[in-house]
Design goal:
By secondary structure, the chain is mostly helical. 76% of the residues lie in helices and 0% in strands.
């Protein structure tokens, strides 16, 4: 019984640590390059981490918390904090769902896609109605989508390939 309790505690501590590290890396990447992490034309390189739920569901809370902290630390308005973080949460959940269905080369292409789509649509909405009222919604969506493509495919695919190669060391089961 005592051995089972220790094993359970060890797994719980590993899970919390893994989520916390992902949140910290996301926050650090976003805040350190803040000038390009927000605005109408933005490229939030931390969004490349949105491929990680493909390998572990523990990345989902880490990404959400990292985005939430980043938006708070950068002093964003409440609507941006809530909806922007929600977009990353939805993208992370969708990427995890991709992991349940897709393998091989298709996974490399599909894992970054939810972050591009959810952020383009939701953050594009926030930008249009909170910051840039004179810019058409479609233009906001395209600007955010382009930045997300650069982050999620340009940086996300190399991260995906590295994580896939070392997944048994990075994301051990049990």
């Amino acid at each position: 019984m005592q051995h089972e309790t220790k094993a359970t505690l060890k797994r719980g501590a590993r899970a919390i640590t893994q989520s916390a590290v992902i949140a910290a890396v996301y926050t650090l990447l976003t805040v350190c390059i803040a000038p390009i992490s927000s605005g109408l034309v933005q490229c939030r390189l931390s969004e490349a981490l949105c491929v990680l739920p493909y390998f572990t569901p523990l990345a989902v809370p880490g990404l959400f918390i990292g985005c939430l902290l980043s938006n708070i630390l950068m002093g964003n308005p409440m609507m941006d904090i809530v909806l922007g973080s929600f977009a990353t949460l939805l993208a992370a959940l969708a990427t995890y769902l991709v992991s349940l269905r897709v393998r091989g080369r298709a996974a490399t292409v599909l894992a970054p896609l939810p972050a591009v789509l959810f952020n383009a649509l939701i953050v594009g909405y926030v930008l249009r109605f909170v910051y840039f009222e004179s810019v058409p919604y479609l233009a906001c969506v395209l600007y955010v989508g382009l930045g997300q493509m650069i982050a999620c495919y340009g940086a996300g695919i190399p991260l995906f390939l590295m994580a896939d190669k070392y997944k048994h060391k990075l994301f051990p089961k049990g």
